[in-house]
Structures are given as structure tokens and as C-alpha cells.
Fold:
Amino acid sequence: MTPKDMFTHLGSIIASLMFVWAMFQQYFPYQLRNYIERYSQRLLGLVYPYIQIRFNEFTGERLMRSEAYSAIENYLSSNTSSQAKRLQADIVKNSESLVLSMDDQEEVADEFEGVKLWWASGKNIIKTPSLSFHPVSDEKRFYRLTFHKRHRDLILRPYLNHVLKEGKAIKVRNRQRKLYTNNGSYWSHVVFEHPATFQTLAMDPVKKKEIIDDLITFSKAEDFYTRVGRAWKRGYLLYGPPGTGKSTMIAAMANLLCYDLYDLELTAVKDNTELRKLLIETSSKSIIVIEDIDCSLDLTGQRKKKKEKVEAEEEKDSKPKVEKEEKDTRGSQVTLSGLLNFIDGLWSACGGERLIVFTTNFVEKLDPALIRKGRMDKHIELSYCRFEAFKGLAKNYLYLESHDLFLQIRKLLEETDITPADVAEHLMPKTISGDATFCLEGLIQALETKKEEARLKAEEERQKIEQSAKEEAKEQDKNHD
Ligand SMILES: Nc1ncnc2c1ncn2[C@@H]1O[C@H](COP(=O)(O)OP(=O)(O)OP(=O)(O)O)[C@@H](O)[C@H]1O
Ligand SMILES: [Mg+2]
Structure:
């Protein structure tokens, strides 16, 4: 029997004596009763050196579920469920994972900075009289924490803070995340279940690690942001050609940090007031995304005519950007200064822990005010697939670490621009057996075709320049004559 058990027994003996005493107390005069009660409590305090704190599941007049109770529940389910012999099981995250927590009337031990303490779960059943045949019973659950009184300072502040913080973090990890989209000035959401992760994202490993470190540092930097007096937010600008993984990276960011996603379609927002309303409604631990910022907002203050812009792009790049045409810019009066106000303004401090991500295919077209440091803290270029990124894709798609054809592919990737999306398409299994060599040969063929196309295009350009130089010389000769 541990000293704590011994004292607990002693405590229950004294409590029983007090109960017997209470039975008879009505026969004693009030003053004497008070006197005896006070001294019996003191006596109990002398022989029972443990402190107990009770955390009820429901608190307040309106009986709201206590935040502390649910944080403790999460903390105990992950930290002590291996000790408890009787467990309760529950399913979270859309039937994906099973969470175990200790059953009623169980006790588990925990340790903090070398100090041992005990958590017990319990419930009181209160029977309420009812007219129906079955009496209505109300279960009031609670957790009771017991620790030695000499550790009072350690447990009351650092330990309980640790439990609450850890419990809330576990809750965030277990919750089902959401993808919000705005329909005018309202958000609607679906369950966010994108499988992209940083492991599956093909890019230079050094650059990838730098981004992951930056995100994790941000998510743990609440104290830093409070100390330096800044709103706890960070802006990312992702830029690069279509199909280089900008949207995929946003999904990977949300999965890494367990954040919700708010995909803000600026062209559907009527004006700055509506934009403010939408942004105030976003919750903390979220990523607010504005895709194709150059298309959503005209930087001179007027809305761009999307179709014209897309046509101009198609001329430049033979690949049509069909999805961009779907956006409708009619009727929106959101301005650049309106947007900047929301990024910098007071709202951005509400709730905290928010990432703001802009994506664009044309970084050079953006107003410098929009992307200056402090607004967009980190600029990330996602570019064409080089060999390091290809290796990531080959490992992911074909389970290949090396292959005889890698050398040839390496050389071609150095000479030819191809997007990771195109490479990934070639690495998709084309036969039931998923023959890797077949996929790699297909990729080589595509790379060679692209290389030849680029050579012909360059040749055409060169001829055009020569032609116009010749014409210019002719013109000059004519003028001289
Ligand atoms: N770096 C990458 N790693 C792994 N897969 C990628 C990568 N880039 C693109 N892909 C694949 O290509 C598809 C298109 O990529 P994604 O939508 O992320 O491109 P994007 O840069 O957002 O393009 P856009 O500018 O047109 O919006 C994705 O579904 C993904 O499977
Ligand atoms: Mg995209």
C-alpha cells in the first residue's frame, strides 16, 4: 500500500466518522456543532497531507461543458490510457480513428518534473423526480486530481497549465478539419480531407525543410508574438507556373499544422465591408487562402476583365488556363487598400494563429505594397521539376530510389522545363502491373518532345529577330538614299 493509499483510507475513516457525527449533530446546539466541525476539519488537514481538486464536466448557471474538463479528458486519453484497466472508446475524425479514455471510477498516476500525482474519474448520479414511469437520472461526471500539499505551487500553475495546453492541442489534432469557401458574404464548409503532405510534395529537400521549419516555428511562437507585440499571423506568397504545386503545398501546410482552410474567392466579395465581415468570421488555427491574387484584384484599383487577361496569357503560353475563366469578377469593388487594411488591421489580431497565403503565376505583376515583408513574410517560388524533385516523385509514385534511366532523365531535366504536374502524370501507373520502366520511358519521350519544341521555338524567335533586324537595316538604307 502506497503512502497516498494509506492516507486515503485514513481520510475515508475520518470522513465516515464525520458522517456519523452529522447524523447526530441535529441534537447538539448550533455553537457546539460549529466548533466541533471546525476542529475536525483541521484535524483532517493535519493527518491528510494531500490536496484534491475537482473538475466538473458542467459548470456555470447554464451548465456549459467545462473547457477544463474536456482538455483534461483529452490529456488523460493520450497520456495515461495505457495505465487504466477499464477504458471508454470513442470514434473521432469521421470514423477514422479510435480514441481511448479512462472509464468512470478509474485512477491513473501521472508525473510532472519528478512529482507524482493522481487523476481519478467519477460520477454522481442525481435522481430527479419525474412523473413518468422511469425516474430521470442525471449523471454528473468529474475528474479529481490529488497531489501532496508540498507540491502545491508546482501543480497549481505549471502542471495545470501544461495539462490544459496539451489537452487543447490534442483536441485540435483529433478534430475534423474544415474547408470553408465564401458564397458572397457567407462561409460554407465541407470536411477537409486532402491527402497532400510535405512528404508527397516534390521539391528541393533543403527548401522543403526550410518551409516546414518555418511553419512549425510559427505555430509554436505564441509567446514570442505576444512579447514583441505583433499579431500572431504570418503571410506566405507562393508563386510559380501552373502545375508546380502551389495549391498542393497549401493543403500540405494545413495537414502539417492541423489548421482549417478558408479559400477566399475575392471576386465573389461585393466590397470591402463584406470582406471585413468574412475575415472577422474566420477562426484561429486557420489558413486564409487567396488563389491567383493577380487575377482577383486589379492593382490599379479597377477590376480586370478576366477574359482579356486569359486570352493574353494564352497567347504567351500555348497551354490554356481554363479554370481561371470560370471566375466572375462582375460587381465586386474590393480594393487593394481594402485588402491591405485587412492584412494589417486590427482584425488580424483577433483570435491569432493565422496564416495568410496568396498564390500567383505572375509575381512580377503584383504591387510591391502587397508583397512587402511584414505582409507577405515569406516568398516561396515553386518552379519546374528538376532532378531532386523528380527523385521525390519517383519514390512516391513508383517506389523507386534508383534506376538505369535516372541518368538520362537527370540530363534532360537540366535542359528542359517541365512541371511536376506533368512529370507526375507520366509516373501514374499505365498498366495493371505498374511497370516502372514503361513509365520512365514515357517520361523520357515527353521530355525529348518538349526539348525539341523548345529548340524549334528558340529557332523561330531567332529568325524573327534576324528578320526584323534585316528590315530595320533596309529601312535605314532607304532613308540614307
Ligand atoms: N511539387 C509537386 N509535388 C507533387 N505533386 C505535384 C507537385 N506539383 C504539382 N503536382 C501535381 O500536379 C497537380 C496540380 O498541382 P497544383 O494544383 O498544386 O498546381 P498549382 O501550382 O496550384 O497550379 P495553378 O497555378 O494552375 O493553380 C496536383 O494534383 C499534384 O498531384
Ligand atoms: Mg493552384
In short: Residues 300-311, 314-330 have pLDDT under 50 and may be disordered. The domain at 178-381 is CATH 3.40.50.300 (Rossmann fold). The longest strand covers residues 115-128.
